[in-house]
Amino acid sequence: MxxxxxxxxxxxxxxxxxxxxxxxxxxxxxxxxxxxxxxLRVDRQGRVTREVALARFSLPLPEHPGQELDLRVxxxxxxxxxxxxxxxxxxxxxxxxxxxxxxxxxxxxxxxxWQATPMPAPPTVPKLIPIVTxxxxxxxxxxxQTYTRRWPAQENAIRDWLIPLGIDVNHGFAKTAVINSxxxxxxxxxxxxxxNVQRWAEGxxxxxxxxxxxxxxxxxxxxxxxxxxxxxxxxxxxxxxxxGMDDWLLRKxxxxxxxxxxxxxxxxxxxxxxxxxxSNKEFAKTALLTGWKVLAIQSARG
Length: 302
Description:
alpha+beta, 2 domains, five-stranded antiparallel β-sheet, about 15% strand
């Protein structure tokens, strides 16, 4: 109800019980003199699902600037319904990378046995249900129970009004949890995408490993062949010197043989660097697909 209307009713001696709109308060800090929370409702296992505390709340009167209507509040805290905690300060360092741990280190996602861990859930707080009254004094439990008893009766009244109209005959009846078909379709699509991404990432990881192994092998072959050619060239030069070949002809012959050896080594290096670039390409694919895998897992769980 509007603040001015409540103030008029209170001035006339009426006691009104209602609930605050969500845009009239921002959290527990909006209320003052909050007493200790006591159990209001428990489940079959004896766990508290709702608790209530007595508090005060000042409702500004728009038509009377500077004046407020003092209300008593039965502040219900619904422990089964969590909402995002918008008051929690953001991380000063900004959001972490998907592969970064809480201690600042990074997960070794190149390992084939690595399993993606979901990002921490955003902080939440229990949903508040502030039931207010214009009465000067109130009992929190009694006030909460008095108001919440209206809900099923009100639902049934609306149902009785809707049945003759044929609009919604299910309104007010006991609800049965059913699977949300749209959510199920999205989850199924995400699971399929996750399977594809896992298969692609595993293939990229194997190709990266094979290319890296091939690169190391070709590096050794290049070094070995270069040492062998260098040894052959030096021995041939010594042999020609011992045979008394002219210096200009010796230099020309050795230069030509060195050019031939360099051309052969260049072919070895090209094969070597081809494996290197393939390894880097598959590494980038593995990183990208692993990131997609983490996002797909988070979306499927969400």
